[in-house]
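Q: what does this look like with N-(aminocarbonyl)-beta-alanine bound?
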Amino acid sequence: MSLLIKNGQITTAADQYFADIYCEGETISAIGRGLSAPAGSEVIDASGMFVFPGFIDPHVHIYLPFMGTFSKDTYASGSRAALVGGTTTLIEMCCPIRRDEPLAAFNLWNSQADGVSACDYSFHMGVTRFDDSVEKQLREIVGRGIASFKIFLAYKGAFGIDDTELFHVLRLAKELGVIVTAHCENETLVAELQRRLLADGKTGPEWHEPSRPTCVETEGVHHLMTFAELTGAHVYIVHTSSDDAIQAAVAARRRGVNVWIETVVPYLVLDETYAQGLSTNPPQRAASHSTAAGDEGKKKPNFNGAKYVMSPPLRARRHQDAIWNALASRVVSTIATDHAPFDFKGQKDMGRDDFSKIPNGIPSIEDRVNLVYTYGVKRGRIDLHTLVDSCSTQAARLFGLFPRKGTIALGSDADLVVYDPNYRGQISQKAQQMNVDYSAFEGWPIEGRPSLVTVRGRIQAQDGKFVGELGFGKLLQRQPTHF
Ligand code: URP
Ligand code: ZN
Ligand code: ZN
């Protein structure tokens, strides 16, 4: 099987030029002008299009037992959605609960993807307990090609670990050269604030943010930084939502802590007014960058905001500007999704009388690249190279996939996104591949979309449709790189 993509504008984190790309089997075997292909090859004319390396989403939840329910996607729906949106590799959080054995959990998570996923995938191994047996199992899991851990400083009683465990996980990670991804919020403060708000009768989704203010996130970052400084471990802060948290990480970086920062697409385009139920879609203001929605004066906070409950919460609008700027200056390395789909009816409404029971998560695996392109690149917030860097290359570098993934180069996997900048359309739940009953971005205009998406040389999505093969995706082997 061979594929020739002609006349596209190849755009990577570092370069932009016109050339053809020839893919022999699963890899890129030639890049140049005027290439020809043997008879029988598939030839695609990419005139007027960008050709990007396949995008990598380094923070997704496909299989997630959480808050008394399960996230809605399977690897069939989740990988189809990823591919239609230009994402060719997923790194999922494997999230056992405290009493689970890591190896059994890893096998369970892998069994959800194996033979089903249409795109390539790997896992960050969640560490939700630490003892001798867990340590032994973690060593084996790293040996099986999983070069990163995930820890939670939040979710008391579910995924959260204590400080002794935190210290020992980081020490092991340092020894093994694996990077530790971390959810940073102080779980004790969250629990106390939730209790106080609920006791005061503050039960609606608009109280989710006040139960987890930016200082609670910043304390989590500062806490992790102290432990990383003492152990020398390499750490990666997931879903960073606030300027304050970024500043805490930057301060630690200045004193030599090996820390990288991820944000996720909801924080870039949504703000707290959505979780209050006050903002309406489509967002005139998101397109124009005017200030907060004009409707708040008339509307009252309402339960529609539950669709926008995630942790850390959506913040005040000023944080968006800070995060975009931090991306433009490469202070923030990656844009993931933290895709965690829960239906509004039957799942989010479990928290109708108590915001702390609303399953946390906003689905966006399908929309990330189009949103970043439309509301980032087209609005002049970041350039195209930063889009590629933050949505693909940095994840490949940090998580042991580069240069197999994350770039367009000879010998790299032929994961390619032919992107049509002339497409105009709107996001809608009805048209989406994600298996969830709402879109957080219903009606939002999109000014570009993937026209063709390949995974290791095979065309898997075309013009908003999945046209590929489920089960084609592979578990990627990753080697530790952070010694
Ligand atoms: O609200 C969120 N972020 N849901 C998914 C679980 C997590 O904390 O990443
Ligand atoms: Zn998290
Ligand atoms: Zn997450």
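The chain is about 30% helix and 20% strand. Residues 59, 61, 93, 338, 340 surround zinc ion (ligand 3) (CB under 6 Å).
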